[in-house]
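>> Question from a student workshop board

For tomorrow's exercise we were told to take the sequence and the ligand below, predict the bound structure, and bring the output to class. My setup keeps failing. Could a helper post the expected result so I can at least see what it should look like? The ligand is magnesium ion.
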Amino acid sequence: MLSVSEAQAIIRDRAKPLPAVATLLAPDCLGLVLAEDIAADVDMPPFDKALMDGYAVRVEDLEEGRAILQVVDEVTAGQMPRCPVSRGRAVRIMTGAPVPEGAEAVVIVERTRPLDEKSVLIEDRPAKVGQNILCRGKEMRQGEVILSRGTVLRPQELALLASVGRPWVNAHPRPVAAVLPTGDELVEPDEVPGPGQIRNSNGPLLEAQVQRAGSHPYSLGIGRDRPDHLQALIGEGLKRSMLVLSGGVSAGKLDLVPGILRELGVEPHFHKVEMKPGKPVFFGSRGETLVFGLPGNPVSSLVCFELFVRPAIRRQAGHQDIGPTIVRAKLLEDFAYLSDRPTYHPAWLTSTDEGWQVQPTPWFGSSDMRGLLQANAFVLLPAGTACHRGGQLFSVLKVDD
Ligand code: AMP
Ligand code: MG
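>> Workshop helper replied:
Here is what the output should look like for this input. Compare the format with yours to find the bug.
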């Protein structure tokens, strides 16, 4: 049987970044990945700029730090200076305003006292050339590449794009992942389950995971364990960049999903991975659409999503780093647990001065979603070991960031 890392390698090979599209920049672009290099269209700052409110002066007038200077002009942000600064003269200047010609430094207003309309007393240390001035082009030069393809958009990237006159960019779009929980036993959350029925919790689970991974969820409702019904819904889901199914992939009588996927032209890449929970997980593709069949047990669905689906979403979204995030953490105490498969056990992961520490949380197995309320991670317990030793390092899958 395939190991988790072999399965992840197969997914990495198949998942391709979605073609870039011109995207109008707005807050909902946060997290998108740039698909082009961006050059500055202006020098920044576009002029020598005052960084403080005060007086623009020549340093020769302030060799002692103290002088009375003639005030010849005042310049505020958005204006251009009207007169240069020459020996014995100063210009009153505000933060963000262009520094007048001849001025070499700005003395902050707190170190000055106006004597009358036309003169100012300065009592400061000796002035240095460039003091409180940001020279033209210091932050960026016109034509210089300031953002490269592959950059993930955060608020600061959006601000920088605005400042270089880019209200739109070529970016990889968010993938759309269709979500299809399947099972005759499922009823909607607002229904009261009849005999033998349970509520569909995987729908909300997977749609939320899709959203958290940076993709748009597209709900297909509940698929029933009937070929015609599944065919119609799966056909609809295959029109998106990704289709995520839950249930119907194991070896039961009504586990119809892999057969129907095949009939609809989905090429299988793997079915079954050496892990617990989640062993029957299926991965295939049709054209550029990736298809995941996750086992129906809620915790299996959740773990398989984080290990396999989320990295695929991130690849389609254009990310270089597609995860999942695995850290090495010290097990706090001895933990008795034996399985014939490597197990992702719910756990609480904390960052301490001595590094990551992890503590498994109580859990009743792959259907026990409630047990996950006390968990923020999964500790990977190797197969065939009855007692996992406190103080030793284990791999831990982070899921809550
Ligand atoms: P299956 O993979 O279809 O054999 O389902 C395995 C287990 O997961 C069964 O106990 C199902 O009732 C349960 N299950 C399947 N789908 C869902 C769902 N959407 N929400 C909650 N539990 C589910
Ligand atoms: Mg089922």
